[in-house]
Amino acid sequence: MKCSRCGRRLLLSEKPLTCPSKDLGRLDIVYDYEAIAESINRDVLSQRSFNMWRYMEFLPVPSRDYIVSLGEGGTPLLKARRLGEKLGLRNLYLKDETRNPTGSFKDRAMSVSVSMAVYFGFKKAVIASSGNAAASLAAYGAKAGIEVYAFVPDFAGYGKIAQLLYYGAKVFKVRWSEAEDPTVKMMRILYEEHGFYPSPSFGVFNPYQVEGPKTISMEIVEQLKWMVPDQVFVPTGAASLLTGVFNGFRDFNMVGWINRYPKLVAVQPEGNHPFVRAWRERADPMNIRPWEKPPDTIATGLEDTYPWDGDAGLKALYTTNGYGVVVSDKEILDSMKMLASLEGVFAEPSGAAGLAGLIKAIEEKQVDRDEVIVVLVTGHGLKDPDIIRKTAGEPPLINPSVEEFRKVAREFYGVLA
């Protein structure tokens, strides 16, 4: 393991979580690719069950004895024909991460994280999260018998909080501060002063969870019959998912199973886009400015005002010749409706941001109609019922009368019955 800031090296056997230099560097995991290539090949891989843990050799958990799993991964890659026709794309795919056990891609991260907590022997874990990561940690913590403390912002959606409470987590809503993320402040106190296992969905405080999402890329390559897509659209908050997605393509390149990268596209909302701003400014990856004000977006899962893994995320964009896109709340909402009405995929705002980014990229002539495009749909629509109710509207109420039904169907829906 190597610190992303000071370069200090540690061994997994030392069971490290953060760099001893306390420089807020992420402990990037360095794999022995020669050993991996000798121990597994594509034929062996094809005989395993199609879930995240088929890629065990590429993950940091030392033994299957420590794995804590709820059946995460193995999500479908859907050919979006109707949506593709509407957008003028011939090869559009949706990687539907809503199918994971708690309804979001965070299950991949937290399965790895909690498995490592079991290996390390922790009994209490703590997280700072806007909702999805905390809900996932609570679920896997419940499975493993680890007590979970969750600090969420005061504006977190109740749908996610309800999940946390049912899983038995001890949840604390924290009033937001413009100076710093108060949930991270509280998490650090419990980790540094009380010895809790930190498990946020960014790598500075937990380098292991970022490895889980890289299995998304590995599945995509397999599902495309070992073809690498041309572009992959990634909803981006702390840039941990973006980093993980890059790492998956990197690992397959390193063992010789593929020989190129797709363009990675980071998508952020207008009301909070410090990472895309940094990309536009060609910022030094180690000096990204945090967002100066509280986040203002319906995409509550993308509200990280500081991209903790932004250094790795920027390097991923630079390496793959990728780019960043900023989208409005209206564009996100329109994408939610398109996903549901054209492809039957119900996504929360953060989950639909990737499609909004694709539409914006098409408008900006960044996408060719013949390219193979993959959009990550990262979280289920029922994750955010408050926003769903506000934006979906109410159906008309009628008496059990055919005449009234026909009249209202025409007036409300514009159809004749």
Automatic annotation (TrEMBL):
Any single Pfam family the record assigns to this protein: PALP
Cofactor(s) demanded: pyridoxal 5'-phosphate
The organism's place on the tree of life at top rank: Archaea
Domain Tryptophan synthase beta chain-like PALP: 68-379
Catalytic activity entry: O-phospho-L-homoserine + H2O = L-threonine + phosphate
UniProt modified residues of type N6-(pyridoxal phosphate)lysine: 106
Family the entry assigns: Belongs to the threonine synthase family.
The protein, known as: Threonine synthase
GO molecular function terms listed in the Swiss-Prot or TrEMBL record: L-serine ammonia-lyase activity; pyridoxal phosphate binding; threonine deaminase activity; threonine synthase activity
Metabolic or biological pathway, per its Swiss-Prot or TrEMBL entry: Amino-acid biosynthesis; L-threonine biosynthesis; L-threonine from L-aspartate: step 5/5
Enzyme Commission number, as recorded: 4.2.3.1
Protein role: Catalyzes the gamma-elimination of phosphate from L-phosphohomoserine and the beta-addition of water to produce L-threonine.
Major enzyme class: lyase
Residue ranges of the TM segments: none
Binding site for pyridoxal 5'-phosphate: 132, 378
Annotated PROSITE patterns: DEHYDRATASE_SER_THR
Record GO biological process: isoleucine biosynthetic process; L-serine catabolic process; L-threonine catabolic process; threonine biosynthetic process
